[in-house]
Structure prediction request, 117 residues.
Amino acid sequence: MIDKLYQVICARRDRPQAASYVASLMKKGPDAILKKVGEEAAEVIIAAKNQKISTSPETETGPEPADQAAALVHEIADLTFHLLVLMAEKKIPPAAITAELERRFGTSGLTEKAGRK
Prediction:
């Protein structure tokens, strides 16, 4: 699905249509895309912080845990979409991200991060 969505985003970039959200965002330029990525990342953080671990029904307030999980999934999907828009704007295909993750696979995150210094 990621590759298919990326291809649609690239098509909107290359052949903009008036009714296309992607085309309108790309027309505004990289700063508008980056702003959306930041907004969506913040919404992921808020949705994740709002997700409560159920202790007992009488002490829990707010949306049900399933609704909270659905809200988090929704926000992660929005962030993923906007990251794909950024990738398309910068002409970075999903395969480049996959290759980087494969390169890191099996290496401790602490070791990988220390190797970047």
User: Anything to note?
Assistant: The domain at 2-52+59-105 is CATH 1.10.287.1080 (Helix Hairpins). The chain has one domain: 2-52+59-105.
